[in-house]
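question for whoever is on the cluster today: can someone run the full assembly for these? two chains, 1023 residues total. i dont have access anymore since they changed the login thing
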Amino acid sequence: MQFNNSLSLFQHLLTLGEDKLNDNLIKTITPSHAFYKEVQALIAAHYANKEATLFKSIINEQASNLVDDKLIHQLEGKQLGYYQLSNKIGQGGMGVVYLAERNDGLLEQRVAIKFVFPSIAALAGEDFLRKEAQHLANLEHPNIARIYTIDNYVEENSASLSSNNIPYMIMEYIEGTPIDKYCNDNNLNLNARLKLFQKVCYAVNFAHQNMILHSDIKPSNILVDNTGEPKLMDFGIARSLNQSNDEINGEETKQHHLNAASGDYASPEQLKGEKLTTASDVYSLGKVLQSLALKPNKEILALIDKALLTNYKKRYQSVFQLIEEIKAYLKNKPIKSYNAPFYHLIKFIQRNKLSSSLSFVFLLGLTTFAFQTHKHNQALAQEKLVLEKVTTFIIESFKAVNPENAEKENTTALDVLNKAKNSITTIKDIEPEVKGKILYSIASAYSGAGETQIAIDMLKEIVSYPNQNQTKIQLKIASNLLKQSHYKQALKAVNLALKTEPKTTLLYGQSLGQKGAILMLLDQHKAALKLLLNAIKIISDKRSSLDPDIAIIHNQIANIYNNLGNFKKVFEHSKLAYDISQKIYPSSSPKMSSAILSMAHAYSVIEDYDNNAKFTLKALNIDKKIYGKNHPRIIIISNNLGNAYSKIGKFKEAAAIHQEAISATIKLFGKKHIDYIYGNAYLGNALSRLHQYKKALIAYKESYQSSLELFGEKHHTTLTAQKNLGESYLENGEVKLANKMLIQTLQIAKTVYDSKHPRLAMVKLATAKTYNAIGKYNKALQLASSALSVFKNHYKNDGEYITDTVNLITEIKKNMNQNLLTKAS
Amino acid sequence: MSDIVKEPNESVTLLLNNWIIKDDKYSANQLKSMVYYHLKGIVKNTIADKKHKSSSPSFIAQLPNTTSLLHDVLIQLTPPTEIMDNREQFYTSLALFVRWMLMDELKAKQAQKRSHQKESISQLLSLEDRSDPYFTFDEAFSQLKTLAPRCYKIALLHYYLGFKVSEMSDIIELKSAMIYNELATAKAYIRTQYPTFN
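^ ran it for u. tokens below:
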């Protein structure tokens, strides 16, 4: 085996068994080999990686460089206005809280100062804290910690590139005990606990009336001060104000995230990141009550249960309802429910308008590309201008697909592409090289979306731009022409590709493969075979033997042998391709479905039609899931499946499938298309077996006409179609016409196929049938015998063709005897 | 308090534009923060996965639930079937974008550090501080791209978009066992690039 570098050798060793890497290395190369030491190092690294890799923490470390969150952990001793920061008293997902003391000598005052992580501030919007403070300023309530002011802290001498303004909030400092601890410490009974809890509920209800959700209610956010009053704090911002200091001294900024919820107390909808309502605060209050209520009775349990329902619509819809229930319980009387206002206050970032998803990624791809170009083309003049133009272009394109700007409601990928294409042509002053590359990515996207003609037109334009990869452009043109069945033009393009590429590159190998495929379609089989074998050699030299390209080429070779009539080779190469595919593709992927399909075809050429139908159906089912019903691929596979059904006698099913495929073909491609030819030929076969000869004749005529226009008369597809048509005339009783047509077919076929080709034999068989029908038995016998000798070299003795031919010969001989008897009498 | 984590006012592309052309710090910060939380999310998921395997439920319970912004965007990004062929290309672009952003930030920070320490002439002369472990990591990626393109692509999707082997198997259409091998090879190669390893 040949290996390009130590990595490919190492990878090969991995496939042989992970635990025997060193053993297998020695078996593969000698210690003096150039790769030996490198592979040894890779093996050692691999075993070390199995223990642990630090790569993610390296990325993580680097990621924290993107934001300035660390800054707010280093503020002890700093002066903010009148206040000097002393120690940190809490930290959470949203920020860090410091204790601060007023030191201007005028007043003695302790406050809590909360700093929001700059990353959170960046995401939430520049002035979000100011807006929040505006809300909180309205919250004057004895059971809610006061907010004094908010401001931005400006870090001096910061090494940071970004904005150094860190928003902070000065709040009332509560010296107190978390409510659950307070209740236990003071051994409060249930009613006392409920009364305390009721005060908390009133505070939350008050906030709700002011359109503010708390969204992080939990015992540690409810401090009971030395007068016994509960104080609700930390509206929405910090995860926990009063976490122990031990946690802070551990790993700093270990786990920041945007969801402020505390797992134990957050509602299900909050944990899922869904929209929050007042009912979410109700849930958290229910959890708090659950933790406070020792030995709850049935009524309290029912109350808690209702607050904790998973479906928020079934909970108490307002805290007010909860308060009324507690009040009723404390007063020992039942009370009605109320319909309270319903608020929708918090929107989460993941529900934003970026859902215009596809266009977003497409444009992100282009943007990345533009940045890369910018980075790698330092020599380009006016870089900034180029980038500006490119970015403007991207933004213009994006505007079209932004649901808020777009006229259409559902913007498709094609809409984005069209807008992108139009925008790029209007940009002036952009470097032609960059413009060419952008056009290439748009053209590729068109090609992927099946818009072959637009892609070709664009690619032809790009050819004239400087510094473009001409080989890639020509190959892409060729593959699009191929999709359009324009084989000769495709051949021209691929020849251009080969001309520009050095003869040892992978791209050259791939171009050879492409040319081979085109020549095969043009019936130049031997030339194609030679190219494809050469392509396999180049590609396997550059890559490993388990390569997808190799599998594809084996399939193409199988195809060529199919056309050359060597069916054993067809099965052999198809099996090779299938075996590679099974090892490398996931079981329900498009590529695996292609492999299954080729195998299905291989079964058909060795006349194993049950397996043929089985494999085809398997592929069709995979592909329908991936591509939907109206896709060129589905047409092809449907036709194959119909054909397979015909072979095992399911003619009705077959005819229905072909008819559907034919209408889809007309819609997508019109009548001059290979799928139209095959669809009609197969339909004709099925109808003929259903004895609907007239309908069959129409189908065969369509097939022949389309093939004649597309390929000309000297092409195996046209010849097969013509043979079918001739046989169909015979079935319709037009024996003379049938004979005439088949004689003509046979004449052309003799110039196309060599004498031992089974396709020639098939034409001979059909012609023999017509000679038999018009009573020219000698000619019939001669042709049938000639066909039989060829079939015997290719097919099983009990196979369709041999049986058919033997039956014909028996009939001819019978007719000859009958004829002799008639003459004799 | 409401609207803490509200939707950004502008589209990502608009943010890009403001950052690059207008040099707008606010847009830059917003975008960087998105990437930051995205990468944090990847790391957290990995930890959660590992802990899950060693079955330590108490630890998982303590982990905050992840809000990985780019990942959430990604989930909505399942391309329609007609562009199945381009799916791999899209994700690779996105991963490259994240990688590019990290590297750019590192270089920018180092450049700024240098201008802050003008007294050190030797440092001023050196173009880049290559001792940062992330440099080695990024450089290894660049090497991989030429040495083993498929390893490169898979490592890119794994480390910068947080895709697991099974997810990549779906996107790249290769069997999981092969993805595993490619990723293992990439990891082994990256490790050999650290001088302390050998």
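summary bc i know u wont read the tokens: The longest strand of chain A covers residues 83-91. The longest helix of chain A spans residues 800-824.
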